[in-house]
Design a protein that fits this description.
heterodimer, A: 112 residues, mainly beta, 6-stranded mixed sheet, 54% strand, globular, B: 114 residues, 7-stranded mixed sheet, 4-stranded antiparallel sheet, 0% helix
Chain lengths: 112, 114
């Protein structure tokens, strides 16, 4: 069975500081991995995706993620956080047979 | 392009009432999904469809029914609403079966059952 774990339920960073959100997955083959962001009262928006090839993936809004097969991880990073980045972030694995597996999400708070 | 549109955006029901949530997508996507989102529980798949005329159960299907009579529409029905169904409901669609196709989400329907 496939699974996704986001170990941090809530993270607080200061504006301008760097950010890393952790994601670990369990899957028996090459995974398809995604990061989505959800602003309050909104739906989920795709930040970036990994299929194969380069292990460092660039996304929108200045985000990037690094795929590490040996660690079964796909961590999201941003060098300098802006107040508008405050949101909930979801790591997603799949789809497998049409269905995706979502992590439980990490809520990011940005301090001024 | 509108993408994925959900109606209504908000609704309050009394226990035992029925209602239908509508999802429409204009991207010619084959796959459509209904999720519910509850605090601390992420997104849970209720039902999904792999094409017009097909539906399948997800992780939490009990108390819900769905229909996909047209490719662009995916309806979620609550026959007899219960307080446990108070949640935010999201519809999503994706291009196809092949791995790596991202899902596109609507803005959600906030449903309260009193």
């Amino acid at each position: 069975a496939q699974s996704v774990t986001q170990p941090d339920i809530h993270i607080t960073v200061s504006e301008g500081a760097s950010l890393e959100l952790r994601c670990n997955y369990s899957y028996g083959a090459t995974p398809y991995l995604f990061w989505y962001v959800q602003s309050p009262g909104q739906g989920l928006q795709l930040l970036l995706k990994y299929f194969s090839g380069d292990t460092l993936v660039q996304g929108i809004k200045g985000f990037e993620a690094e795929f590490k097969r040996s660690q079964s991880s796909f961590n999201l990073r941003k060098p300098s956080v802006h107040w508008s980045d405050a949101a909930e972030y979801f790591c997603v694995l799949g789809p497998n047979a049409g269905k995706s597996t979502f992590g439980d999400g990490t809520t990011l708070t940005v301090k001024p | 392009n509108a993408g994925v549109t959900q109606t209504p955006k908000f609704r309050v029901l009394k226990t035992g009432q029925s209602m239908t949530l509508l999802c429409a997508q204009d991207m010619n996507h084959e796959y459509m999904y209904w999720y519910r989102q509850d605090p601390g529980m992420g997104l849970r798949l209720i039902h999904y469809s792999v094409g017009e005329g097909t539906t399948a159960k997800g992780e939490v299907p009990d108390g819900y029914n769905v229909s996909r009579l047209k490719k662009q529409n995916f309806l979620l029905g609550l026959e007899s609403a219960a307080p446990s169904q108070t949640s935010v409901y999201f519809c999503a669609s994706s291009y196809g079966y092949q791995g790596g196709q991202p899902q596109h989400f609507g803005d959600g329907t906030r449903l309260s059952i009193l």
